[in-house]
Amino acid sequence: MRTVTIADVARHAGVAVSTVSYVLSGKRAISATTRQRVLDSVRVLGYHPNAGARALASKRANVIALVLPLRAGMNLPVLMQFATSVVATARQYDHDVLLMTADEGPDGIRRVAASAMVDGLLLMDVEVRDTRVPLLRDLAEPSVLIGFPADAEGLTCVDLDFHRAGAICAAHLAERGHREIALLGAPGVVYERGTGFAERTRAGFLAEATERDLHAVAVPCAETYDEVASAVKLLFDAHPGLTGVVVHNEAAVGHVLGALRALGRAVPEDVSVVAICPDDIAERARLTSVLIPAEELGREAVRLLMAKLDGLPAGSILLEPRLTIRESTR
DNA sequence: ACTACGCAGCCAATGACATC
DNA sequence: GATGTCATTGGCTGCGTAGT
């Protein structure tokens, strides 16, 4: 059976092709009776617009690219929260999402953008010196970054204010009377790569600790139980007076708690723990935490990209972190 | 003023035909 | 036979306008 085109709908409804187009796009007023006749024909014939033809005529693909590197040390559940939120929000703006991983490198981004396959790009896991950033400046298509590169001039970026997040955690522990605190961060490779959020959390944490005259250390943290356990043991061997720990590593949170238990240190009686992680993880373990608002970040990123597609100015956004106090700190 | 129509144009792929 | 030129094709959008 031949696919149904807009011409079939027009014939069936007894109107012009352009009238059908206007009914469907809503860009011009069409009388209620004509409108209903067209919509009935659409339903009866089972018409769906041809995306290729629509892109040809409108110069809009109604597709955005989500560039997601899937590098070592990334936390997949959090990444999926972002991706889900991006796809759902894009649908609200009548856009679909093309998922790109990093295997193809900058060439892949260039190819997809230059071929008019997508109208705009969303980049996740942006590094401080991201090689993709210079490319984005040259591209005709608008883009939004989730994460901040070193030089964000002329770019639209969205992120949680991780510097503040690190500081808030240190401040909370200080207010609860802790004098010696530690940050267990992302895996080492993440710092070596220059991923902004990891570095900024550490900087904010250490700066706030210095400000409040605390003794503070920050160490990277792997994700298998054995590695976490030995890191935690080393930490307490080196700093026996440690009573406050901030964990900025979703995958390691559970292991850190297990390792503390194994060392005979009770939470929160002996050690207070603050996590920077999605709410569901913190909720499950009743941890005091700063939420990573993946859902909101994805939504805001799409919103900004859509604004840019409409030619509107779109400034960068830093979301203010919020601390939720649960049972793991005292 | 309002409604709906006609038609040019969007761009890459393909076919028809001419030239080397 | 390979190569070049040009018109046509596809589904849809949106400007300009005819008919009330």
Automatic annotation (TrEMBL):
SUPFAM superfamilies tied to this protein: lambda repressor-like DNA-binding domains, Periplasmic binding protein-like I
Boundaries of every HTH lacI-type domain copy: 4-58
InterPro entries named in the record: HTH_LacI, LacI/GalR-like_sensor, Lambda_DNA-bd_dom_sf, Peripla_BP_I
GO molecular function: DNA-binding transcription factor activity; transcription cis-regulatory region binding
SMART domains hit by this protein: HTH_LACI (SM00354)
Keyword list, A-Z: DNA-binding, Transcription, Transcription regulation
Regions that span the bilayer: none
Protein name, as recorded: Substrate-binding domain-containing protein
Organism: Herbidospora solisilvae
